[in-house]
Every structure is written in C-alpha cells, then in structure tokens.
Amino acid sequence: MSWQPYAARPDSTVTGTLLQWEGVADEHHAARTLLAWLPPSYAAEPGRRYPAVYFHDGQNVFDAATGFSGEWGADETLTRLAQEGLEAVAVGIPNGGERRFHEYSAAPTPELPDLGGGGADDYVAFLSETVKPLVDGSLRTLPGPDSTVVIGSSMGGLVSLHALLTRPDVFGHAGVMSPAFWTAPVEAFTRVQTSPTPTGRIWLDIGGREGPGEPERQRAYWQDAHAMRDLLLDKGMGERLRFVADPQGTHHESAWAERLPGALRFLLGEE
C-alpha cells in the first residue's frame, strides 16, 4: 500500500494536491481511507519538512462531495495561508460511520445509551501508533509534538482535547471546536482538572446556536465551553489558550470553515 492520487468525483471540490492511502486499520478500527493534503511548496522544496495537522471526520475536511453536511474547506484555507508563508501537511482521518460516537467519546453517555462510548483511548492509540507513524514515515513532516496539531469539532473537539491530555508526547496542540462537553461533562472536566497543564496551544471555540431548536442543548454547549475556558485559564494556560465565542455560530461545517483560518494561524504558531 502507498499514497495514491485522490479519487476525485465529478462534483469534488478539492484544491491542490490531495492523496489517499486505502485500508488503514488496527485491531479496534475498521479499514478506512486516510487523506493527506500537501502544501503548495512540497514538490518544489524537496528538503523541506512541514508541521502536520490531523483532522477528525476526514470525510468533511477537503471535499463537499464526501462530506455528510458540507466541508471545512481546509485545502482552500491552507492554500490561502501558504500565501502568508504558513504551510502544513493536513491529514484527514475519516470517522467510523456508525461507530463515530464510540470512537470519539471517552465515556458512555447516559442520554445516548445506544451509541456506546468509551473508545477515545483506543482511537487516540490508533492515531498515535498507526496513522501518525504511517504519515511521518512516508511524508516530509516534522514529527515532534511541537509541530503536531490535532483538531476536530463537536465530538471531534472532545477527542482532540483528550488526545492532547493523554498523549502530549505525540500531540502538542489541539483545536477544540464546538465541543460537545454535554455528552460526558464529568469525564471531560475531571480529565482536565487532574492532568498536567498542556505546554502547547489550545484553540477553543463555541457558537450560540449549536443546538438548533433545542434551547437547553444550546445553553449546555455555550455554558460548558465557557466553563472549560475558565478551567483552562485556572490551570495556567494563559496566552496559550485562544477562546472564541460567536453568538450566531451554528453547529455546522460552514461555521468551522469560517473559524478555521484563525484556528490554524494560532495553532501553528503564527498568532
């Protein structure tokens, strides 16, 4: 197996060079097709190495044709950021479909008993021991944690923070977008309280309209994110935490795409 050109569809929206590696799996995770986007200078500067950004829900990161509700436009955003001199390899790890909630959650959710839960440690191990070694061994990345970002939204935001806290030897910075802390508030907040303060950067954001038609859920998203901000500041994150709250922000790829440029500038150390 190896990297191959991305199998674009007629309605694909990919910008730049996107590769795919089929059949990536481990004992806990069914085979899935890993995606890797290369920065514009990659081919022209063969001696250069790049930081890497690992995105959850990889189906939604680069291509609207595969996204289940749009795309993040990470390829377009990184193309624009390259014009500012900020370049990175971007890796999309597709979710496990019906197992998505289980993979991204560190603990079962009483409100959602049919979705399972508690698979976050196994998923972070999959990233750390299968996905990242494959990427570092085949692409010109800077492999250290200082040059490695993990980012996601909703449940992907939770597992990004979980990865930063449990494997700081692998992931140095985390993008925690629209985190669904309501699914496991005790686990999430206890984990932060009892873990060493991260030495890298955390981008944490939230919208005021995260749960359309569900006022209680909207309040939970909003209040939990602000409470996590306060906890991280109490832990001493200081300027290594960037918190963005958008009262009009929705729980949708379009909202995360809008906030992604600022998140990547901060997480990659340019702001």
From TrEMBL:
<protein>
    <recommendedName>
        <fullName>Alpha/beta hydrolase</fullName>
    </recommendedName>
</protein>
<dbReference type="Pfam" id="PF00756">
    <property type="entry name" value="Esterase"/>
</dbReference>
<dbReference type="InterPro" id="IPR029058">
    <property type="entry name" value="AB_hydrolase_fold"/>
</dbReference>
<dbReference type="InterPro" id="IPR000801">
    <property type="entry name" value="Esterase-like"/>
</dbReference>
<dbReference type="InterPro" id="IPR050583">
    <property type="entry name" value="Mycobacterial_A85_antigen"/>
</dbReference>
